[in-house]
Amino acid sequence: MPQICVRIDTELLRERLARESGKPASSMEVTRWLHRAGFSLEGTWQCDHAEALKQLRPEEILELVRTESEHGVTFVHREFPHPPATGL
Q1: Considering only CA atoms, which of 10, 72, 11 is closest in space to residue 45?
Q2: Fewer Cβ atoms within 10 A, N terminus or C terminus of the chain?
Q3: From CA 72, how far away is CA 57, in angstroms rounded?
Q4: Could you give the number of structural domains in the chain?
Q5: pLDDT at site 85
Q6: What is the predicted pLDDT for the residue at 25?
Q7: Is residue 45 assigned to a domain?
Q8: How far, in whole angstroms, is CA 32 from its chain's centroid?
Q9: Residue 14 has pLDDT above 90, yes or no
Q10: Is residue 8 part of a domain?
């Protein structure tokens, strides 16, 4: 089964959740939201299906790593959807 690890800009996500609810969102509320969306925290946020990723906005994803094993070989695909701004 494919495994998806994602590095999330939790501050951007917290800001979005606060805007949507009309009240400040705590880091615990962000964690609960991620769990409800299908993510688990095991060193990094992980999910095992792309549906969970659809809950995030593209700018909230800093790095995405997909791994899949076939016949004893593990393939890793790494994406950086929105690299951090360099200020140039």
Answers
A1: 10
A2: C
A3: 33
A4: 1
A5: 56
A6: 96
A7: yes
A8: 13
A9: yes
A10: yes
Instruction: For residue 17, give its domain range.
Output: 3-79
33 pLDDT exceeds 60? Answer: yes
Q: Which two tokens stand for residue 45?
A: 């946020």
Q: Angle at the Cα of 50 (from 57 to 7), degrees rounded to 5? A: 55
Alpha-carbon torsion angle 23, 29, 30, 32, nearest 10:
-140
pLDDT above 60: residue 88: no
Instruction: Please write the tens of the pLDDT for every residue from 42-65.
Output: 777 888 777 888 999 999 999 888
- Global pTM reads 0.77
Residue 19 lies in a domain: yes
What is the C-alpha separation between 5 and 63, in angstroms, rounded?
8
Closest CA to 65 of 45, 82, 84: 45
Backbone angles phi, psi at 35, to 5 degrees: -60, -45
